[in-house]
Amino acid sequence: GMPWRGELPERRKDGTAAWLDLILIPVQQGNGLVAKVVAIGLDITLRKEAEDTARVNQEFFNQMGDIAGVGYWVFQSDNNHVTLSEQTLRIMEADPDTPPSTADIYAHYTPESEFVLRMAIDEAAKLGEPFDLELQFTTFKHRKKWLRLAAKPEMRDGQLWRLIGAIQDITDKVETQRRILENDRILRSAIDAIGE
Predict the structure, then answer these.
(1) Are 100 and 83 in contact (CB under 8 A)?
(2) Contact call for residues 72 and 58 (beta carbons, < 8 A)
(3) Which residue in 6, 26, 54, 194 has the most C-beta neighbors within 10 A?
(4) Phi/psi at 122 (nearest 5 deg)?
């Protein structure tokens, strides 16, 4: 027979639950029949508990992102890779099955917003200072949005290691502010016209 490997739940002698990474190796006799099976097991309970905690935390972050309308992202400076939360992908209207690259994301900002973002990242890398920006973005479904992008750099040996950030769609807020300013301008013009 062939060796087998798998992860199995187990009960310890004291009754507590455990997980084993188990390898079963059949030992054959000279005639090809299996004489015995050697089992090698490694207790992986702590790893399984850590994986479960990470899964629960991920679900929690995703639910909080859904409730608050805020996504998160992590940019690794050593390989220029960005990891995006489910909510971030929804805000950007990107395909979750093929998440966009850093270059793809930059290409969806307006030229002015891309410039501001790149400058903020450069400053964060040089000074280790966080940033909080309002930027124009065209989603992957070609809709224009205003995004609030905030990030905090994490440094190692004086160099940018990664940026951890949050993203929020603030399009409604920006449009409301613009309408208020426009209404204020119209009202002032009308008042000025009356006063003449």
Answers:
(1) no
(2) no
(3) 26
(4) -60, -45
In angstroms, what CA-CA distances link 16 with 9, 23, 40? 11, 22, 20
Distance CA 131, CA 147 (A): 13
Q: Tell me how far apart the 2 most distant CA atoms of the chain are, in Å.
A: 113
Which among 166, 194, 173 has a CA at the least distance from the CA of 87? 166
Question: Per residue in 44-88, pLDDT tens?
Answer: 999 998 888 888 877 877 777 777 779 999 999 889 899 999 999
Predicted TM-score (pTM) above 0.90: no
Secondary-structure percent of the chain, ordered helix, strand, coil, rounded to 5: 40, 40, 20
Whole-angstrom CA distances from 162 to 5, 34, 81, 125, 130 are 37, 53, 10, 9, 12
DSSP letter (8 states) at residue 109: B
d(CA 103, CA 121): 14
- pLDDT digit string (tens) for 39-52? 999 999 999 988 88
d(CA 134, CA 132): 7
What pLDDT is stored for residue 181 in this prediction?
Answer: 87
**Nearest Cα to Cα of residue 192 among 96, 28, 184:** 184
Phi, psi of 111 (to 5 degrees): -55, -40
